Amino acid sequence: MPYAAPVNEIKEPITIVTDDGWTLRGEWIPGPNPAAPLVMASHAMWVDRRTLTRRGPPSVVSALQDAGLNVCLVDLRGHGESGPHATDGADFSYDDIVRYDLPAIFRYGRTRMPNAHLTVLGHSLTGHAAMIAAGLATENVPDAIVGIASNLWLPKLDRNARTSLSKQLALTAWSLVAGRKGHFDAKRMRLGQWGVPAAYVQQFAEMFTRNQLGPSGGRAEYEEALRRVHIPIYTLASEGDRILSTPDNVAAFMALMPHAAVTRRVLWRRDGAPQPDHMGLVLNPECEDEWHAIAAWIHYQAKTVTPDSWKEGP
């Protein structure tokens, strides 16, 4: 491990109120050095912030703590403690996460530690939403973003016709189920802990059909936002992630940000052993070295250390 800072067990419950009035809940985990970088971290679709701390140590958060970083964990709307939930009748879309949740998280980080280097770390959903939100933002833009298995589904971002067809069929099925019930219950389908409203699922299906990223019924506004991103981006992808965020898909999504300084890390098959899948990238303890490499990269970007423990992947 590249660092041996003492792990701080102090956790403070926090609330973040978005501009549209939703209350996001999470926890503040201060590092031993108040001048260290701050990481605002959040989760993937259908799960919550516990995926970044469970089965640990080691965990993503324990790796950040080992590195002496200040950490703030947040549940996005409709997930974990940030209810109400879709199964309770709550209605929200991907637009709401991009336009309200992530800007509120950016703002909280800047307010909590005004002079700190601010990194947003997101698994899947939070990663790509943070990148789009950074391109839309006029203030409180983070200094860097880490996206673990973060990309969006579009036919033009997928070179594999079979994979693209699988995504189209999945989106069609999810949309039909969500449209019939008013929400998609991921727990009942054994895909996660939390459901999402019909509008949320249908927006992803609509973007896939239109083959462009943007608000429901709108133009490719989110692709325009990505072209305005100029901050450093670190991405972690795995060959074991065969559908949701394949390395090729992640690379194609990163190419939508031509002005960002992107560091790509890819876990390829080695010695015949399979690499972690989509959730394994944050749950599998064998990824501990990758989590420490992310922490080292954050320190490198903040210029608090200049380690040689991270590498740019292929």
Summarize the structure in words.
- The protein has 314 residues and is of the alpha/beta class.
- The chain has one domain (12-152, 222-302): Rossmann fold.
- 33% of the residues lie in helices and 16% in strands.
- It has nine helices and ten strands.
- The chain has helices at residues 60-66, 94-112, 125-136, 161-181, 198-210, 221-226, 247-254, 280-283, 288-302; strands at 12-17, 23-29, 38-42, 70-74, 118-123, 144-148, 183-184, 196-197, 233-238, 262-267.
- The strands form two sheets. An eight-stranded mixed β-sheet has the order 1-2-4-3-5-6-9-10, with helices on both faces. A two-stranded antiparallel sheet has the order 7-8.
- Helix 1 packs across helix 9.
- The chain is globular, with a radius of gyration of 18 Å.
- The two termini are 23 Å apart.
- The model is unreliable at 1-6 and 309-314 (pLDDT under 50).
Strands, helices and their partners?
Elements: E1 12-17, E2 23-29, E3 38-42, H1 60-66, E4 70-74, H2 94-112, E5 118-123, H3 125-136, E6 144-148, H4 161-181, E7 183-184, E8 196-197, H5 198-210, H6 221-226, E9 233-238, H7 247-254, E10 262-267, H8 280-283, H9 288-302
Compact summary:
The protein is of the alpha/beta class and 314 residues long.
Sum up the structure in keywords.
disordered C terminus; 10 strands; two-stranded antiparallel ribbon; 8-stranded mixed β-sheet; Rossmann fold
* Total DSSP E strands: 10
Major β-sheet strand ordering: 1-2-4-3-5-6-9-10
H and E order: EEEHEHEHEHEEHHEHEHH
The overall pLDDT average reads: 92
Secondary structure: helix percent: 25-40%
Percent of residues in β-strands: 15-25%
Poorly predicted spans: 1-6, 309-314
CATH class: Alpha Beta
Number of domains: 1
Largest sheet composition: 8 strands, mixed
The rounded distance between the terminal residues' Cα atoms is: 23 Å
Per CATH, the superfamily is Alpha/Beta hydrolase fold, catalytic domain
**What does the radius of gyration come to?**
18 Å
How many DSSP helices?
9
Write down the overall geometry: globular
